[in-house]
């Protein structure tokens, strides 16, 4: 009779998990713990194997040709250093739970130097303003092109070519130029919000 327990389902790899890169300054205290945890070749092989594919301790031992006891020792240290974590639980045919280990970050980067690794929000806002300018110019060109097609329509309707400022603004807001402007602004705002939540905030938390 086959077991009703799941037997080694596919575990999500680094590319499939919503995790960010880990940036650590060599001057930080965290770097000491990380360097201590990966000081041995075995620990680095274990870390590389987990990045390649989430695995159990026995699978990692087979992959790097080491004993399960040795691998388990280094796994505990790598977890304590917040480099690996249990990402899933598999079950053996006997129903025994087996922890599946995967990396806690999309990449591990140790850096040295005074330059801040945190993305600059000032630079990002400058790019946003530049994007807004491009959107504004593009929307005006769309509006002018659309207006160039209007004289023949007004002539057919017997309308005057002269418009007040209010009428011109209203025509822009309700015409293709206005649509292009608001669509472009929404795209720029969405990209900035995505950058802020996916890049800036995680980087600030890591360097805080």
TrEMBL record:
Q: What Gene3D superfamilies does this protein map onto? A: Winged helix-like DNA-binding domain superfamily/Winged helix DNA-binding domain
The residues forming a coiled coil are none
Q: Which residues cross the membrane?
A: 179-197
CDD domains linked to this entry: HTH_ARSR
Q: Which UniProt keywords apply?
A: Membrane, Transmembrane, Transmembrane helix
Where's the HVO-1552 C-terminal domain? 112-198
Could you identify this protein by its name?
Helix-turn-helix domain-containing protein
Give the originating organism. Answer: Halomicrobium mukohataei
């Amino acid at each position: 009779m086959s077991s009703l327990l799941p037997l080694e389902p596919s575990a999500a790899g680094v590319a499939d998990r919503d995790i960010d890169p880990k940036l650590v300054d060599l001057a930080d205290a965290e770097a000491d713990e990380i360097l201590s945890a990966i000081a041995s070749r075995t620990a680095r092989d274990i870390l590389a194997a987990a990045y390649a594919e989430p695995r159990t301790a026995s699978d990692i031992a087979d992959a790097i040709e080491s004993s399960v006891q040795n691998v388990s020792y280094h796994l505990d240290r790598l977890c304590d250093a917040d480099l690996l974590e249990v990402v899933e639980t598999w079950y053996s045919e006997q129903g025994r739970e087996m922890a599946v280990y995967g990396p806690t970050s999309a990449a591990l980067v140790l850096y040295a130097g005074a330059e801040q690794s945190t993305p600059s929000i000032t630079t990002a806002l400058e790019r946003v303003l530049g994007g807004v300018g491009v959107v504004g110019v593009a929307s005006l060109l769309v509006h002018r092109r659309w207006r160039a097609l209007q004289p023949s329509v007004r002539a057919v309707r017997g309308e005057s070519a002269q418009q007040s400022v209010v009428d011109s603004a209203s025509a822009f807001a309700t015409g293709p130029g206005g649509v292009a402007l608001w669509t472009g602004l929404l795209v720029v705002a969405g990209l900035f919000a995505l950058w802020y939540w996916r890049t800036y905030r995680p980087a600030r938390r890591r360097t805080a």
